[in-house]
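Working notes for the structural subgroup meeting. M.R. asked for a predicted model of this chain before we commit to crystallization trials. I am recording the input and output together here so anyone reviewing the notebook later can reproduce the run.

Input as submitted:
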Amino acid sequence: MQDGATPLLVAVGVGHLAVVKLLLAMGAQIEATMQDGTPLYIAAHVGHLAVVKLLLEEGAEIEATAHDGSTPLLVASQNGHTAVVKLLLKNSADREVKVYGHTPQQMASQWGNKDVGKLIENYCCNVCKKNGKIKLCSRCKKVRYCSPECQKSDWPTHKTVCKKLAMKKRLNRAFKV
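Returned structure, recorded in token form:
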């Protein structure tokens, strides 16, 4: 397609989960980009929660940016997609990234999405959502916890994603991607 839109990007944009699953199973590039961003960015932009969840489970880069440097969290915040923002935060999206001088929290508030702004402000620990001193998972370095107790309680859920993230990181280092 002339504008760089691949079949995966189109399916993501319209929220067609079954087609997205099929295309990924057939080897579609999960990080394929066009000017509007990656599949994850586009799904976050339009608020397709199920597609965002699938892309994250399949290892999509959570901090991949669009042409202007905005991230999936920033665009979901701007557009008021609360459930998508929660999912991105749970998967350790960077809440401090700035585009045009604004963080996702500031962007949400500026666009009238005060609840999303509050959610970002108050979200920290993957388990209890407490603010304070946060430590990253020692294996994948992506998920945040406020205490060893929270990390232990989340391990049954996090371990599958953690293994994938750690493996992806090792492969990227090995092939210097």
